[in-house]
Amino acid sequence: MVGLKEELLKSIWHAFTALDLDRSGKVSKSQLKARRGARGARGAGVLSHNLCTVLNVPHDPVALEEHFRDDDEGPVSNQGYMPYLNKFILEKVQGNFDKVEFNRMCWTLCAKKNLSKSPLQISDEDAFKVWVIFNFLSEDKYPLIIVPEEIEYLLKKITEAMGAGWQQERFDHYKIALNTSREGLSAWELIDLIGSGQFSKGMDRQTVSMAINEVFNELILDVLKQGYMLKKGHKRKNWTERWFVLKPNIISYYVSEDLKDKKGDIILDGNCCVEALPDKDGKKCLFLIKCLDKSFEISASDKKKKQEWIQAIQTTVSLLRAGSPPPHKEARQKRKELRQKLLAEQEELERQMKELQTANENKQKELETVRKQLEAAAARAAEEEKKRLQTQVELQDRFSLELEREKMVRQKMEEQVAQKSSELEQYLQRVRELEEMYKQLQEALEVEKQARQDEETVRKLQARLLEEESAKRAELEKWHLQQQQTIQMTEAEKQELENQRMIKEQALQVAMQQLEQLELERKEALEQYEEVKKKLETAANNTKTWKDKVAHHEGLIRLIEPGSKNPHLITNWGPAAFTEAELEERQKSWKGKKATSE
C-alpha cells in the first residue's frame, strides 16, 4: 500500500499544485492578498470530492470542515491540505478503482494550466499517457522531476516500439546540455521533449502514438503481452478469435483490441502451467494453459507467436511463484537502487575527500607548527650561540686582564726579591764587618757587648725579614688558589655549555626525523635544517678553536711563589720558584686537562 500511496500522491500533487496552493496548503503572498481562504477551500473541496469518487472512497465533507474548523482560511491555513488528504482519503483506498480514470481526473485539473500552448506532434491523449508514465518513472521527491537515466529509458522504449534505431550520440549531447542546467525535467518539459519530435524524426504521428500507447500499456497497465489468437470454447468446442491481454496475474480476452467487450479472464497463480500441444483438428501452433479449475486451448498465428506467448506466460507464472513484481517495475526499482547506491557512494566519496582534505589541512598545520618550532629553535640556538660567544669574549677579556694583573704582581714581586737580595748582601757584608770588628775588639767587653747587641738586632731584623717572606709566600699561595678556582669555574662553564650544545643537537636531530616523516617534500624545512646544521658546525668549530685558545692561554699561566732555599729550576720563561715535585705535579695536571679537552 505504500507504493500505491506514492503513485497516487504524484498525480494528486499535480492536481493540487494547479489550485495555486503549495504542498502545505498555503497560497503565495501575492495570491493571499487577492483572495483569502474561500476560493482555496472551494478548490480543495472539489478536488477532495473528485478523489473520493474515482478512488471509491466515501466522501465526508464534514471531516474537511472539522479539519480546518479553527481557522477561517480553510485549506490555505497552517494546518494544510496534505495532512487531511493522507488521513481522510488515502488511508481508506483499497485498490478497487480504475487507475486510468483516476489519472485522467488529475490530468484534467492540471493540464489546461501547465500544458504548453505551442503545437506538439502528439495528441492530447498521448500527452496524457506521457504524463502518467512520468509519474511512474519520476523520483519520489517534490517537486517531481524525471532524471536523465529514466528519460533515456523511456525514449529507448518509445524508439523500440516505433521500430527505429536508437540515437545514443544525440541523446548524449542532450544529456550533457541538461546536466549543466538542472537535475532533470518536469512532466510538462518531458511532454514538450517527446512532442517536439527531436527523437522521433521521420516518424508520422500515428506511429509515435502507437509507440506511446504500447509503452503506456506495459508500464502503467502492466500489459506484458497482447495480440489476437484463437480460443477453443468449453461448451460448443468451436474456435473463436479473441484479443488476449497478458498481465502479471491474469489473462483477459476481448472481442477486439478496443477492449470494449470483455469475454472472460484466465486467472494465473503459482499452480498454473503452460505446455505446447501437437497440431490437431486442422489447427496449428497449439498450446494449453492449465489452471486449478479449467484448462484453455489456444492457437497462435505462427510458431514464433506461439513460442513468445508460452515464454511470456511461463515467465509470469514464475514471477507469481517467487512473489516478484512485474519485470518493468522490478527494473525500475533496480535502477532507483542503483542510483541511490551511486549517490551514496558519491556522498561517501565526498565525505572521504572532505576527511582527506581536513587531514591534509591538519598535516599542513602540524608541519607549519613544526616549521615554526624549528625556526624558534634555530632562533634560540642562534641567540644562545651569540650569548656563548659573548661569554667567551668576556672570559677571554677577563683572562687577559688577570694575566696582565699577574704580570704586574710578578714584576712587583721580582722587584721586591731583587731589593731583598740587595738588602741581604748588604746585611752579609755588615755581618762580615761586624765579625771582623768582633775579632779585633774581642778583648774589649764593652765592644763585645755592643757587638752582641748588634747581633741581636740583626737577628731580629732577619726574623722580621723571614716573617715578611712567609707572609709574601702565603699571599702568593692565596693568589695561586684563586687562580685554580677561576680555572675550575671556567672548565665547569665550558662543560655546561658543551652539554647544552649536545642537548640542542639531539633536539634538532629529533625534530629533523619528525619533519622527514611528516613531509619529505618540504624542501624549505630541509634547507632551514641544513642552515641550522651549518651554523651548529660553525659554532662547534668556533668552540673547538676557543678551547684551543683557552688551553694555549692556560699553558701561559705561571704561578709565582716565593723562592725556597733549594736550588732554583730554569724554565722557558726564566728562573722559576718551583721545586722538582711541584713541577711534576703541574705537568701531570696540564697533561690531564689537555687529554680532557681533546
Automatic annotation (TrEMBL):
Domain PH: 222-318
GO cellular component: cytoplasm; lamellipodium; nucleus; plasma membrane
Molecular function terms, GO-annotated: DNA binding
Coiled-coil region list: 328-549
Record's subunit section: The SWAP complex consists of NPM1, NCL, PARP1 and SWAP70.
Chain's role: Phosphatidylinositol 3,4,5-trisphosphate-dependent guanine nucleotide exchange factor (GEF) which, independently of RAS, transduces signals from tyrosine kinase receptors to RAC. It also mediates signaling of membrane ruffling. Regulates the actin cytoskeleton as an effector or adapter protein in response to agonist stimulated phosphatidylinositol (3,4)-bisphosphate production and cell protrusion.
Protein name: Switch-associated protein 70
Species, as recorded: Asarcornis scutulata
